[in-house]
Specification:
With 487 residues, this protein is α/β, with parallel strands linked by helices. It has two domains: 7-69 and 335-375 and 424-486, Aspartate Aminotransferase, domain 1 (Alpha-Beta Complex), CATH 3.90.1150.10; 76-331, Aspartate Aminotransferase, domain 2. Helices cover 37% and strands 14% of the residues. The protein has helices at 7-10, 13-25, 32-35, 61-64, 73-85, 97-109, 112-115, 127-142, 159-164, 190-206, 234-246, 316-331, 334-355, 426-438, 463-486, and strands at 40-44, 47-50, 55-58, 118-122, 147-150, 173-176, 217-220, 223-224, 230-231, 251-254, 278-281, 293-297, 359-365, 368-373, 441-442, 444-446, 452-455. A seven-stranded mixed sheet has the order 4-12-11-10-7-5-6. Strand 16 and strand 17 (452-455) form a beta hairpin. Helix 6 packs parallel to helix 12. Pathway: Amine and polyamine biosynthesis; ectoine biosynthesis; L-ectoine from L-aspartate 4-semialdehyde: step 1/3. Pfam families: Aminotran_3. Residues 373-419 are annotated as: Disordered. It is an enzyme of class 2 (transferase).
């Protein structure tokens, strides 16, 4: 990751000094600061201004936290109202008018079948705290300990959340295939790939020799964010709901990043009509301030007083900012706006895949968009999404000049070629991210190999700003493609 100041920042004493002190004092675990060596001093909407005077279009949005962008007037007004009222800022889990208003607004937006019989638990301030609470809830309610989770998942950085994520291991967690088109684990994609993924899950649950037992719950993201912007097919999500309901397995929907209009519906589960047993909410629900809750079916509410607590679960400023944000998104139909604008941006960005072989796939839902970079010179792996040749036959070149592999899949006639995507190219994705920053655009990377450039603009982005984002990203990709071709 690049961590040194850019030329402009290196020539600015304030920015240079702050960046130097950060590198000397802060933990080696810091992340965004390494790849984005800027010093924000002012921000409004989509725009951040650095200490060096440069302006950036922020498509990171606090990792999806800023549904309304930076310092939206309704959020600032809500915060000032609490400060001016003399209300307590820290209230543990006591009832207050501010908290009551927030809870009412959350319930107003929930799927009606859940809202009618829901309970809400205020957790610690981060989404990972809410995931821990959800796991504890279903384990307490069912008396079971096993958990079903999905490859490519990301649910947080605490121990239980990591165990449910794709990058950690726990004997109590059974990993299931998450359907995706571009790098389908079964090599087929589309409805057939989703059907095979569902059958695999059903087989494991019903096979008395699968070794997984009867789990306490299933946790999934309706769109995998950190996993590379992989939207779950609606039919597959409904199938997971049916499989879990028929077997009395609570379904947990992690809406930390997908919620509050991000995907083109208020909650991403709304696309499929699925009503989960538990919803994990954070990020945008706090209106840019730390806040996390779980909302769940009342019959799961069996834990004892104090079974799950947290000192900072009573953040009044976050509740006020969250209420204002939820109401603004709902009243101004920003979810619908995200759906329309997201479709337009996806369509424009997909032309990059036609122009540049290093762009393997463009995907997303609403204003949650990913562009996967690949190495057009490196064939893919028929046995997986990144390893070497494991014996599959090879075509010479595929459509658009991209090398492709050939593999056989269940139910496929011998001799029928199935394209295998080229290898993921994290070095090209990092180069695109850096080229975007040089052009005043902030993006982040995700995916299994950090090869997916991710866009999470605020829902308030204008048509003109969206066009500027697409133009800057396209220019960055073109520059990286030219450089890679010369190399």
């Amino acid at each position: 990751m690049r961590e040194a100041a850019t030329d402009e920042q290196a020539g600015h004493p304030v920015a240079e000094g702050i960046l130097r002190r950060q590198a000397a004092r802060e933990s080696a675990a810091r992340t965004y600061a390494r790849a984005l060596p800027i010093v924000p001093v002012r921000a409004r909407g989509l725009t951040i201004e650095g200490a060096d005077g440069r302006r950036y279009l922020d498509c990171l949005s606090g990792a999806g936290t800023l549904a309304l962008g930076h310092n939206h007037p309704v959020v600032l007004e809500a915060i000032r109202a609490v400060l001016d009222s003399g209300a307590p800022l820290h209230i543990l889990d006591l009832a207050t008018p501010v908290k009551d208003a927030f809870t009412s607004e959350v319930f107003r937006t929930l799927p009606p079948a859940l809202a009618d019989r829901a309970r809400i638990q205020f957790c610690g301030p981060a989404g990972t705290d809410a995931v821990e609470a959800a796991l504890k809830l279903v384990r307490t309610a069912t008396g079971r300990s096993g958990l079903l989770a999905f490859t490519g998942a990301y649910h947080g950085m605490t121990e239980g959340a990591l165990a449910a994520s794709g990058g950690a291991r726990d004997v109590r967690v059974t990993r299931l295939p998450y359907p995706q088109d571009y790098r389908c684990p079964f090599g087929v994609g589309g409805r057939r790939g989703a059907e095979l993924a569902a059958r695999w899950t059903e087989s494991l649950l019903d096979d008395t020799k699968s070794g997984i037992g009867h789990p306490a719950g299933m946790i999934l993201e309706p769109v995998q964010g950190e996993g590379g912007v992989n939207p779950a097919p609606d039919a597959w999500l409904r199938r997971m709901r049916s499989l879990t309901a028929d077997r009395s397995i609570p379904l947990i929907a992690d809406e930390v990043q997908t919620g509050v209009g991000r995907t083109g519906a208020f909650w991403a589960v709304d696309h499929s009509g699925v009503v989960p047993d538990v919803m994990v909410l954070s990020k945008a629900i706090g209106g840019s301030l730390p806040l996390a809750v779980i909302v769940y079916r009342d019959d799961l509410d069996v834990w004892q007083p104090g079974a799950h607590a947290g000192t900072f679960r009573g953040n009044q400023l976050a509740m006020a900012a969250g209420t204002a944000t939820l109401a603004y998104v709902r009243e101004n139909r920003l979810a619908e706006r995200a759906a329309v604008l997201g479709d337009r941006m996806l369509g424009e960005l997909r032309t990059l895949a036609e122009r540049f072989p290093c762009v393997g796939d463009v995907r997303g839902r609403g204003l949650m968009i990913g562009v996967e970079l690949v190495d057009p010179e490196a064939p893919g792996d028929p046995g997986g999404d990144q390893g070497g040749d494991q014996g599959g036959a090879r075509d010479s070149r595929g459509a658009g000049g991209r090398p492709e592999g050939v593999r056989l899949v269940p139910g496929q006639r011998p001799g029928t070629p199935v394209p295998v995507p080229p290898r993921a190219a994290p070095h090209l994705a990092a180069a695109v991210r850096d080229a975007c920053l040089d052009r005043g655009l902030i993006v982040e990377l995700g995916g299994r190999h950090s090869a997916v450039v991710r866009l999470l603009p605020p829902l308030t982005i204008t048509d003109e700003q969206a066009a500027a984002v697409v133009d800057r990203l396209a220019d960055a990709v073109a520059a990286v493609a030219r450089s890679h071709h010369r190399d």
